[in-house]
Amino acid sequence: MSWGVYKVHGSVHVIPEFDLKPHDQSPDCECGCTYEDGVYIHNSYDERELTENLPRS
Asked: What are the φ and ψ backbone dihedral angles of 51, each rounded to 5 degrees?
């Protein structure tokens, strides 16, 4: 699972690649993206954020 960084009309979007459904490269994306430090961060539909930063045993 990976994330893509896209510059669209002067704004930057971090979007999950190969997600369960496509994302709009806009602040109005259905995923409920957030805006932090000048970057739109999109939420994944497959919930990959829940396991990405867990410690490995």
From this structure: -120, -5
Convert 8-55 into a string of H (helix), E (strand) and C (coil): ECCEEEEEEECCCCCCCCCCCCCCCCEEECCEEECCCCCCCHHHHCCC
In Å, how far are 7, 20, 27, 29, 40 from 45, measured between CA atoms?
A: 21, 6, 16, 12, 16
pLDDT in tens, 1-54: 799 999 998 999 999 999 999 999 999 999 999 999 999 999 999 999 888 876
